[in-house]
Amino acid sequence: MIDKQSLHGEWSSRFAFILAATGSAVGLGNIWKFPYIAGENGGSAFVMVYVACVVLMGIPIMMAETMLGRRAKQNPVDTMRTLTQEAGADSRWQYLAWMGMVAGFLILSYYSVIAGWASAYTLKAVMGDFFGSNAEKTEVMFNDFISSPLRLIFWHSFFMLATMVIVSKGVRNGLEKAVQMLMPVLFIMMFLLVGYAMTTSGYQQGLHFLFSPDFSKITSKVVLTAMGQAFFSLGLGMGTMMIYGAYVPKNVSIGKSAIIVAGADTIVALLAGIAIFPIVFANGLHPDSGPGLVFETLPIAFGNMTGGWLFGVLFFLMLVVAALTSSIALIEPAVAWLIESKDMTRDQACVRAGLVAWALGFVTVFSFNRWADIHVFGHTLFELIDGLTANIMLPAGGLAIAIFAGWVMKQQHTVQELALPDSQYVIWKALISYVAPAGVFLIFLHVVGVL
Ligand code: TRP
User: Fold this and answer.
1) Cα(410)–Cα(200) distance, integer angstroms
2) Domains, the chain, ordered by start
3) How far apart are the C-alpha atoms of 68 and 70, rounded to whole Å?
4) How far is the CA of 326 from the centre of ligand 1 (A)?
5) Which atom of ligand 1 is nearest to the CA of 241?
6) Which residues 6+ apart lie within 8 Å of 450 measured at CB?
7) Among the atoms of ligand 1, which is closest to the Cα of residue 329?
8) How do the pLDDT tens digits run along the chain, 451 residues long?
9) Which atom of ligand 1 is nearest to the CA of 28?
10) 266 CB less than 6 Å from ligand 1?
11) Which one of 243, 270, 330 would you pick to mutate in the ligand 1 pocket, going by the greatest count of ligand atoms within 8 A of its CB?
């Protein structure tokens, strides 16, 4: 079993795997979501907890999830089946993979809607719509945009179709090349925007908001949201890293790769924050203005900086591509499962899975207009799907992965897969067996009010 070949081929090199995993990690989560939920959750308090979660839970769980996939080399459901047999454990560990697939569909359903916004904004940038923007104009533009269900459906469909086409071409062909180009350009764009932010009057205040430690603002909601965001942004807990791990050649160091991917992901998120909050403060916008934050701030930068037209077009284009390399990662576990277990061709699997996520996406579309007034437990339907997946399902999946890797799998197998020097293995083992599971568990207990 250990020599099993993945049905879907392998990454061509360690670099290719790192690129693909970075492509999965870096996406709307970094540039759209991180700034607005940091803004809603007290800025620096959120950022501190977030970084701690990435280091103490994110990196060890990313290693564990990749390792499970590489050992069994199948889709997440069959990977868990194979590994439980190998470890002589309860077959119900498979439910972990099922929950992951459900989470993947739910996330993809709204992810595609937001990526549709970014696509529409690319066109706006091309048309020069941001020229001479100010806070009032960008707010009106955004609110006007999301008020039309038909427009949102159009762009959501556009993006989902693009995802389906790329995934149908297979992970290797479609993905490696796209990410290779994207990452450098995206980094340059982020630095450029930070450069613009430095010239605004809100720079100091923005940095202060994000980085000056303020423990008084740490509430259980802040901690839960920060933990959820760490899982979401790294793309953990639902099988993405398992399926990407299944394509990893044996000689690749899982530990080093995880650190590089998590590092790049965190840097992009922080850069996005550093670019956005100065613009927020300089223009009298509010840090807690919600999912529209990026779309209301950055057009102001593009509308007023030299070369803003070009940079605006490039930026939103990059954002769409970054979203594509993540949406691919969200759908791949289900696609691989349909191919391997349901004997579908890759094309059939892509169409089925894509249509399910597309249909689910209508809930998110309407929750920004027609159904905006529907609140369940004080949340819109979009917030509910987002909260359920990011804050509950992903950490729960991560918790299960940690327990499986730390306690169920034979130690000799994890030693073999990770191939770390002893001193580093001990650190990983302590984090995966104790720190990460206890962290998730205690945060859950705290939120439900037991602690
Ligand atoms: N990490 C991506 C982002 O930040 C989204 C993503 C890709 C994801 N794969 C995932 C989120 C798996 C959760 C689970 O945009």
Assistant:
1) 56
2) 14-447 (1.10.4160.10)
3) 6
4) 6
5) 12
6) none
7) 9
8) 344 556 556 777 788 888 889 999 999 999 999 999 999 999 999 999 999 999 999 999 999 999 999 999 999 999 999 999 999 999 999 999 999 999 999 999 999 999 999 999 999 999 999 999 999 999 999 999 999 999 999 999 999 999 999 889 876 666 667 677 777 888 888 999 999 999 999 999 999 999 998 889 899 999 999 999 999 999 999 999 999 999 888 888 999 999 999 999 999 999 999 999 999 999 999 999 999 999 999 999 999 988 899 989 989 998 998 999 999 999 999 998 999 899 999 999 999 999 999 999 999 999 999 999 999 999 999 999 999 999 999 999 999 999 999 999 999 999 999 999 999 999 999 999 999 999 999 999 988 877 6
9) 15
10) no
11) 330
The reply to whether ligand 1 has any atom less than 6 angstroms from the CB of 28 is yes
Tokens 């159904």 locate to 371
Read off φ and ψ for residue 235, nearest 5 degrees.
75, 45
379 strand-pairing partners: 376
Query: Measured from the CB, is residue 232 less than 6 Å from ligand 1?
Result: yes
**Nearest Cα to 238, choosing from 320, 301, 326, 300?**
326
CA-based torsion, 259, 261, 265, 271: positive or negative: positive
Distance from the alpha carbon of residue 24 to the mean position of ligand 1, in angstroms: 6
Protein residue closest via CA to atom 14 of ligand 1: 235
Give the integer Cα–Cα distance in Å for 92 and 403. 14
CA–centroid distance, residue 420 to ligand 1 (Å)? 27
278 Cβ closer than 6 Å to some ligand 1 atom = no
Give the amino acid at 202: G
Q: From the CB of 66, is ligand 1 less than 6 Å away? A: no
SS (H, E, C) 10-29: CCCCHHHHHHHHHHHHCCHH
